[in-house]
Amino acid sequence: MPWGTRQDPHEAGLCDEYCSADIVPAKLCSSAGPNAKQLAGLKGRSTALRDGTGRDGRSAFGYSCPPAPATDSWISDMTWCSSIISYHNLLNTPPDSIMSQRVAIVTGAGSGFGAAIARRFAKDGVAVVVCDINDVGGQEVTDDINAKGGKAIYINCDVSKREPWVKMLAETKKQLGGVNFVINNAGATYKNKPVLETTERDFDLCFDVNMKSVFHSVHVMIPALRETRAGGGPAAIVNVASTAGIMGRPGLTWYAASKAACISCTKNLAIEFGPEQIRFNAICPVFGNTGLKQMFMGETTEDMFIKSIPLGRCSEPEDIANSTVFLCSDEASFLTGVALPVDGGRLA
Ligand SMILES: NC(=O)c1ccc[n+]([C@@H]2O[C@H](COP(=O)([O-])OP(=O)(O)OC[C@H]3O[C@@H](n4cnc5c(N)ncnc54)[C@H](O)[C@@H]3O)[C@@H](O)[C@H]2O)c1
């Protein structure tokens, strides 16, 4: 309930019991909402109200919420809780950095596209969980973000297994309070080769890292994203697929199939979770300058490949980062179920 839109809490007789307690000072409960001076005076106080219990049930973003009055019919328990959470978020949010309290988990962020996505989020004031199995790369990216004034933590997590996801979520909640965005970017492939030379191991690698990871992320992260939504925060998942999931890519059959599956599940997830305002989109990069580049090359040389890209170059990690962060932003709040080619026009 945005303050002042329904009924002044003073008039409803709620303030004595709820607002003047340790939750919202009574003097701020006006139908006009808090003014700038009141906000300035209370920034420290709202931090002091953190109860450190994390989120469960009515306790979210570190704030305990009182139960809504049983006799009151116009406000639900959850709505009451959300209004208090939004109120405290507002108190803690300097007007010029509205993204600063948001949290993004980026998988495969120890190198390539993922590292650029993590850095770009951090530049926008988003706290980042740098997730990878490459501890050296992951820690380097994390240290770099923190050295530049951003906020990042590194978590080792093999995205193809459920348990590491569960641990990563617990650690994220403990250290950063919750999660708004999950970027399923970690990926793997085998060296470009004719399909009859591929092995079952090649197949499993592609589907475990590129696809099963999305299954685990959805099962583990959706409850956390629901908590975020209940607190009024934005929630979105971006799956990094590939142009290979849309058009043929000889020599990479099973990799391409895993990316096509990734695009397909993104669309179905977007439909299923749309009513909860949890958005799902996919990014489809064209051949880019990262660690996987050599694996993708077959008989086609880089020059030959570039000739098929109207804008005349490969993708750079920053191209992918810009589009991914955009899909999580408020500007993209009406975009869901999109598979966005970031491809210099290759698919045009
Ligand atoms: N580079 C390209 O040309 C290209 C094109 C289209 C799509 N993609 C996709 O972009 C994504 C990022 O790849 P990149 O090109 O930056 O390559 P990259 O090798 O630089 O990055 C991939 C990262 O994922 C990590 N990783 C691998 N397996 C993991 C696991 N099980 N758990 C956690 N982390 C794991 C790696 O350690 C690495 O840091 C992948 O999904 C890839 O398929 C890449």
Automatic annotation (TrEMBL):
Molecular function via GO: oxidoreductase activity
PANTHER family found in the cross-reference section: OXIDOREDUCTASE, SHORT-CHAIN DEHYDROGENASE/REDUCTASE FAMILY (AFU_ORTHOLOGUE AFUA_5G02870) (PTHR43639), OXIDOREDUCTASE, SHORT-CHAIN DEHYDROGENASE_REDUCTASE FAMILY (AFU_ORTHOLOGUE AFUA_6G09140) (PTHR43639:SF5)
InterPro entries reported in the protein's UniProt record: NAD(P)-bd_dom_sf (IPR036291), SDR_fam (IPR002347)
Signal peptide boundaries: none
Record's protein name: NAD(P)-binding protein
Keyword Ribosomal protein belongs to the record: no
Species assigned in the record: Cutaneotrichosporon cavernicola
Keywords noted in UniProt: Oxidoreductase
